[in-house]
Amino acid sequence: MLSGRRTPLKLLPEVLLACHAPLYRYARSLCREETAAEDLVQETFRRALAATTKPREATLENVRPWMFTILRHIWHNELRQRTHDPLSSSAAILFGAGEPETPERVLNRKMIRSEVRHALEALPETYREVVMLREIESMSYAEIASIIQCPPGTVMSRLARGRALLRELLANLDTSGTRARGVGRG
Amino acid sequence: MTCRDAESRLPLYIDHELARGEVEDLERHLAGCAKCHDAFEVLRDVSDNIRAAKPLYDAPLESEARVRELIRARDRALIARRWRLAAAISAAFIAALMLRPVKAGGFPEFAAGSHVRYASGATPLDVASSQPEAVSRWLAPRLPFHFKLPDYINQPDSSKKYSLSGARLLQYGNADVAYLAYSMNRRPISLLVTSASQVKPCLW
Questions:
Q1: Which of B50, B66, B67 sits opposite A166 (nearest CB)?
Q2: Are the Cβ atoms of B54 and A136 closer than 8 angstroms?
Q3: Touching check for A144 and chain B: CB below 8 Å?
Q4: Based on the domain organization, do A56 and A115 belong to the same domain?
Q5: Is A1 part of any domain?
Q6: Of chain A's two ends, which shows fewer C-beta atoms within 10 Å, N or C?
Q7: Is the pLDDT at A2 greater than 50, yes or no?
Q8: Gap between the Cα atoms of B21 and A104, Å rounded
């Protein structure tokens, strides 16, 4: 993925822009705050544009994981400590308490999205990011491993644990009869 | 394939990380094992429901606009840098042309050196005279080519801007050449006279 290339390879605007939405989603999943995610994405692009070491080829397949790595590095090393963490544990999860609910809404895709988002945000970051990268960004184990800098086996185990936690979170919702009947099994 | 093997491969199967042969083995097992098939469905449902929530977050348009501006700023900086580089290369090329080492031993260098030496007083004239005829008389028998210094008549409405100071015989290679010294506003002017057979005309 990364080459150690030091010649000034020009990152094409279309390739960079194609990374924006995936990067924002990843940033949101890490920060869990819109403003912090936007700041993180902007900083990522700033660093990428100024970087002296760039991917060997300016293709989306090369540039995307490289930019995810930059974003993750900034988050872990510079921003995470400064950002307010609204959900410190899965115990803090609140699935739309007080909101009216109907079976129709349960089937609504928008609601599913909201429930999944809340459930994902309730996961510990270690599991949240691998679930996000695999399920939402459709990355391979190898790509995820290169971004989070760990062996593919670790990606697998974190993914399995993350999915199991998500299943519990979503199943609880289901048994409590609040919402998200379309989420999880049973 | 045992149930334990199948269970360990289910996440890989869902994530399309299994090789084709392994996929076929697992699918055969799932077709014949209700327990493992149930486990597969549980896993698949979780995964499907998460994937159904795509894209999960919508990237704000303002954020994308800011990124576009960052890219435009980068492009502008790149163009400016290229222009600066082109200007620097051009300047260096011109400087190299102007400062390139002159071919040692060439007639122009000999002429320039003679002028500098005369102007600094290092080489006195052999004959000091403001009369072209007198100078021609002294030089002509000493040169291997015909030599007669013309005497330009002053125009009625203007006086000569320069005057002859004298001459000296110099050696260039194995041949004698005439060095003529003039003066204009107290500044020395040098003129070297030789034959085309001795010195080939050149641009530099």
A1: B50
A2: yes
A3: no
A4: no
A5: no
A6: C
A7: no
A8: 42
Minimal-distance CA residue of chain B relative to A158: B11
Instruction: Give the predicted TM-score (pTM) of the model.
Output: 0.60
Of B50, B54, B71, the CB nearest to A13: B71
Q: Which domain holds residue A146?
A: 103-175
- Non-local (6+) Cβ contacts of B185 within 8 A are B161
Q: Pick the residue with more confidence: B156 or B85?
A: B85
- Percent of chain B surpassing pLDDT 70: 89
Task: Give the C-alpha distances (Å, rounded to integers) separating A4 from A8, A16, A46, A48, A93.
Answer: 11, 19, 19, 14, 42
Residue A69: closest CA among A11, A152, A146: A146
Helix or strand holding residue B177 (H, E): strand B175-184
Identity (one letter) of the amino acid at B13?
A: Y
| CATH code of the domain covering residue A130 | 1.10.10.10
Number of neighbouring beta carbons within 10 Å of residue A145: 20
Query: What CATH number does residue A37 fall under?
Result: 1.10.1740
CB-nearest partner of B49 from A29, A160, A182:
A182
Chain B contact present for A141, CB below 8 A = yes
Domains of chain B, residue spans: 3-52, 62-201
- Tell me whether residues B71 and A163 touch, CB distance under 8 A: no
A75 in the same domain as A128: no
Structurally, chain A folds into a number of domains equal to 2
Task: Tell me whether residue A77 is in a domain.
Answer: yes
Nearest to A20 by CA among B75, B57, B78: B57
